[in-house]
Design a protein that fits this description.
With 190 residues, this protein is an alpha+beta fold. The protein is 18% helix and 45% strand. A hairpin with a 4-residue loop joins strand 5 and strand 6. The radius of gyration is 19 Å and the shape is globular. The two termini are 36 Å apart.
Length: 190
């Protein structure tokens, strides 16, 4: 049996530390259930959320993109993804990003989960969307260069994550989530 989760700490004060374009830095003055007090800093995401898309061209093949990753200053293989526009639902945003980044739209889109990057100090969350029944459709995107689109066998995730250019945790987790969901029989595989 799983015990009840511990009581959340009490927030005594919040202070925005610096203005950033993507995140705000906030300081939390916390008191825990045992009376201990600490000050935590966290990044608060600006915007309305993000999506990452597991786009299947057929039940066995997923679309990846090779894209420049400024944080590690290299090109990375990963899933198409992006921020939502104000007022945009997760499914709508996923279909828009799919058209902008890989030149496809989907007739069947469903949110299959949510991922956080570093919940200990970031508020940002990304919704994982499974996209199937794809058809050609392109929208202009905001990428500085055209993204290379790569088809990858979903059954061969082990060799994908062994590559030096596939290290983004959200893409890896979303791929395994989709693969396992499809294999479980909880949704129609094709």
């Amino acid at each position: 049996m799983i015990d009840d989760p511990p009581r959340l700490p009490t927030i005594h004060a919040r202070e925005e530390r610096k203005d950033r374009s993507l995140f705000r830095v906030e300081s939390l003055d916390l008191e825990f259930a045992n009376g201990e007090r600490r000050v935590y800093e966290r990044l608060i995401s600006r915007g309305v959320g993000a999506v990452i898309i597991v786009a299947l061209v057929d039940p066995e093949t997923v679309l990846l993109v090779r894209e420049y990753a400024g944080g590690v200053h290299r090109y990375e293989l990963g899933l198409p993804k992006g921020r939502l526009e104000p007022g945009e639902a997760h499914i709508e945003g996923a279909n828009r990003e799919l058209q902008e980044e890989v030149g496809f739209a989907a007739r069947d889109l469903r949110v299959i989960g949510q991922l956080t990057l570093a919940p200990g100090y970031m508020s940002h969350a990304t919704h994982v969307v499974l996209a199937r029944d794809l058809y050609a459709s392109r929208l202009p995107g905001d990428e500085p260069e055209e993204l290379e689109v790569i088809r990858w066998p979903l059954a061969d995730l082990a060799s994908l994550v062994e590559r030096d250019d596939c290290t983004e945790g959200r893409s890896i987790a979303a791929l395994y989530m989709a693969r396992d969901l499809l294999a479980s029989g909880r949704i129609d595989p094709g």
